[in-house]
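Trying the structure run again after the queue cleared.
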Amino acid sequence: MTPVRISVGLGEHEDTARALLQREWPLADLPSPVNEPRIWTMIHAGSNGLAGLAVVANGFRAPAVSADGPRPYRPLLEYLVVDQELRGEGLGRQLARRVLEDASKGVHYVHIEVERTRLDAVRFWTRHMHCTLLPDDEQTDAKIYHLRWSPAES
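Done. Tokens:
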């Protein structure tokens, strides 16, 4: 397995992260702070360059603070990207495993959204990361598949 360094935060990689995201999804950008994002970066040991990144936001749709107190944490994996030139080396699995384990602390599930046109990504999440594709009656968006990962089920 290829050695990588995975850490929370962008550090000096903000511009590189933005470029990597836009190569994969031209309309994508780094998230705004509104949904309390956590960003993981993955550095390839041989190059010190950005090999991948992941973004988990708080998917709970409500004001940050209400009369009932702060909104609960519902981790939603929005992006997980590995540089095209480095794919096939197991880097995506390493990054996904670390992100899911970190994001799931204190909750039962991490929710994952995958574009319906990305059947390869659905296969990755279900086959390699043992995620559950939610049943049809819980699929609320015609353009996105909703999956979930549970530390108890992995």
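Residues 91-103 form the longest helix (13 residues). Worth checking whether this holds up in the mutant runs.
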